Amino acid sequence: MADAVELVYAVPRDALLAGMPTWRGVWTGDPTEILRRIAGGGAFCPRPATEVDATLKQIIPYLLLRDGERIFLMKRTRAGGDPRLHDHYSIGVGGHMNPGDDSVLGCLRREWHEELEADFVPEFRFLGLLNDDTVEVGMHHLGVVYVADAAGRRVAVRETHKLSGSFETAAAAREVYDLMETWSQLALDALLAESDQPLARA
């Protein structure tokens, strides 16, 4: 029997971005309207079709994890599912919304448990909306970016055959900037831009 096709949550691009500014990177304006459109304007679609359909934006909850001034930095191995991201560094934890996810935050909590080993769930603070239509991966996705602080608690990647990860200084993250997937570069830029601001509660 053939493997079941993954269903992912996607919203029509024109409806999602109507009236929005054109941007590349993390947009930190008032997200109220676009979050409303995400919550009520999408549907679960077969992932292979959405990956080639430029009229849809797949919604990706995306977490940037800190421990004080350090940033959780991960490196993808060649065992990962998307060859476009092999050997790239990432600072984002997250993934597609699937049936059963009741919201963006619900998906983010699921991804937290699936991707990381930790005996706590942090409080998630909304940072902004991540968009990059200049690359193939980014064209079909919109990131809903959150920040959380481990506050000294242990965190490790769960699928060690696909990823390695550890908390590193901002300087160490900058050193591998050119080896980061594009979304992580843009997310790091946004994170460092607000690095002097305290992490607020969600």
Q: Could you say which overall geometry the principal axes of the C-alpha atoms support?
A: globular
Largest sheet: 10 strands, mixed
Please report the number of helical segments: 7
Helix share, percent? 25-40%
> What's the CATH first level?
Alpha Beta
Please give a handful of descriptors for the protein shown.
alpha+beta; 202 residues; disordered C terminus; two-stranded antiparallel ribbon; Nucleoside Triphosphate Pyrophosphohydrolase
How would you describe what is shown here?
The strands form two sheets. Strands 1, 2, 3, 4, 5, 6, 7, 9, 10 and 12 form a ten-stranded mixed sheet that branches. The chain has a two-stranded antiparallel sheet with strand order 8-11. The chain contains seven helices and twelve strands. The relative contact order is 0.22. The N and C termini lie far apart (44 Å). The chain has one domain: Nucleoside Triphosphate Pyrophosphohydrolase, CATH 3.90.79.10. By secondary structure, it is α+β, with helices and mostly antiparallel strands. It is globular, with a radius of gyration of 16 Å. The chain has helices at 13-17, 32-40, 47-50, 104-115, 136-139, 170-175, 182-193; strands spanning 7-12, 25-27, 43-46, 56-67, 70-76, 89-90, 92-94, 116-117, 125-131, 141-149, 156-157, 163-168.
How is the topology of this model organized?
Elements (H helix, E strand, L loop, with lengths): L6 E6 H5 L7 E3 L4 H9 L2 E4 H4 L5 E12 L2 E7 L12 E2 L1 E3 L9 H12 E2 L7 E7 L4 H4 L1 E9 L6 E2 L5 E6 L1 H6 L6 H12 L9
Parallel strand pairs: 4-10
Antiparallel strand pairs: 1-3, 1-4, 2-9, 4-5, 4-7, 5-6, 5-12, 8-11, 9-10
